[in-house]
Amino acid sequence: MNMPQETRRALVRKYKETVLPAGVFVIRNTLNGRVYVSSSLDVEGAMNRARFELGLRSHRNKALVRDWIAHGAEHFSFEVIDRVKERDDDPAFDRAAELEKLLELWRDELQCTGDKGYNTP
Questions:
Q1: 64 in Cβ contact with 54 (< 8 Å)
Q2: Where on the tree of life does the source sit, at the highest rank (predicted)?
Q3: Integer Cα distance of 59 and 53 in angstroms
Q4: pLDDT tens digits along 92-115
Q5: How are beta strands 23-29 and 35-40 bridged, if at all?
Q6: What is the DSSP letter of 35?
Q7: What is the DSSP string of 40-103?
Q8: Best label site of 47, 52, 82, 115, fewest CB within 10 Å?
Q9: Could you read off the pLDDT of 32-55 as tens digits, one per residue?
Q10: What per-residue string of b and e applies to 44-65 under the rule 16 or more CB within 10 Å gives b?
Q11: Closest CA to 28 of 53, 50, 44, 57
Q12: pTM recorded for the entire structure
């Protein structure tokens, strides 16, 4: 499909200006209940990257990779559990700081360290 250069530029500009949803996600081992909790300013992209890295056995969390290999991909679920609520009307709003607070809250809530999780303290 050939599109005019100006249309293409407008679409690229619109894509670059799009704010991606920031949030917290969990990878859950459905056999033993252990969880890995993480966050990103692009939560969907980070979750897909984690799934891809686990498939390649190259995820940075080695305990998670070991269980992925031992139990198989079918015994893991991926879920976005919270998203940063955007505040366009507040010029002092800090998405990264808000995301960090959400991550800390969910890590405490899900107790994702030790025997219950894959995260390190």
A1: yes
A2: Bacteria
A3: 5
A4: 889 999 999 999 999 999 999 999
A5: antiparallel
A6: E
A7: ESSHHHHHHHHHHHHHTT--S-HHHHHHHHHH-GGGEEEEEEEE----TT-TT--HHHHHHHHH
A8: 115
A9: 999 999 999 999 999 999 999 999
A10: eebbeebbebbeeeebebeebb
A11: 50
A12: 0.85
Query: Which residue matches tokens 């995301």?
Result: 99
Q: How many residues does the chain have?
A: 121
Tell me phi and psi for residue 105, to 5 degrees.
Answer: -60, -45
And the tokens for 51? 């799934």
User: What is the rounded CA–CA span in Å between residue 41 and residue 11?
Assistant: 22
Q: Cβ distance 54 to 65 under 8 Å?
A: yes
List the one residue out of 56, 103, 53, 57 whose CA is nearest residue 80.
103
Tokens, residue 109: 């809530």
From residue 43, alpha-carbon distances to 61, 63, 116 in Å are 18, 22, 23
Residues 6+ apart with CB under 8 A from 71: 29, 31
